[in-house]
Amino acid sequence: MKRTLLFGFVLLLMVLPVVAQDTTTIEAKNDDISENLDLEAVASVFGEAEDLEDFEKRLNDPEAQLTNLDLNSDGEVDYLRAMETVKGETHHVAIQAVVGEDQFQDVATIEVEKDSSGETQVQVVGDVYMYGPSYICEPIYVRPPPIFVIFWTPFYNPWRSPCYWGFYPPYYRPWRPYPTRTYRTNVNVNINVNNNYNYTSVRKSKTSVELQQKNRRNDFEKKNPDTTFAKRNPGVENRQQLGKETKNSGKPDQKDMRSGENSTGQKVQDDWKPAAERDVAGKAAEASSAERKKSGVPDVAPAPEKKPNAAPKSVKPSQPKPKKPKKKRP
Predict the structure, then answer these.
(1) Residue 224's domain spans which residues?
(2) Residue 42 covered by a domain
(3) pTM for this one?
(4) Domain count across the chain
């Protein structure tokens, strides 16, 4: 009997690890990686940069922390480098994440082109791997970006970032990525609210499309084909349709709140409560009313009976107290 029990105990110990190894843990992820680089913030700092070297510095500023991308999941935000190609009146600037040795991934492009009327147009295009197709931000700057001055000089040399894996500027100190929602809140301080940011699905520069087809780097996408936007978000066309941007939700976002837009200008009532609290109070009142009806108690308490007015009591006028005679001193 003892041998049988011992054999059963040993057999149980052998089976338990197998069952434990067969258990799969599934971690739900509600945030998409496209939320970790705000194209409005990219467009905003581009409009303030003196040149593309300064623009790259602003992208990777450890104090501003404009990006929250960690594509290679090494626990540090990826360095973003700017690679420019020029053809005629078109400047095509590719923003690439450095994800490994000789491994780069395009995350967005800035397409600057002067049209036949001499007007300079800017589009910030999210890479299809990151944001899905046709996710394009068009900044309308309140004043011309300083970088336009040097873009159209006769002997302009395109900027090609010298940075690669393990070789970064002295100012750069990598930081750990924040939770996506924290980043979405903090990045607003990097957006110039005086500019306008429109979204479209049409790319204006055919030359930029050609240059991107020749120079696009997608090393990370090739190694991880199951992490494209289409695979991450089946049935969703692009980032704009994810429904997570407050800009198109009808509610004022952080930028609108700072700029005073979408505000009624009315004073909030002193007894105001959020809708959630009002709903809870209303449901509690309905439940209490139903309970009173069941027990036969009316919802409104009867008014108290009026008592006949009592005759007013006579009030005697107060009489002054007699003063004590003062004693004369000897």
Answers:
(1) 33-259
(2) yes
(3) 0.66
(4) 1
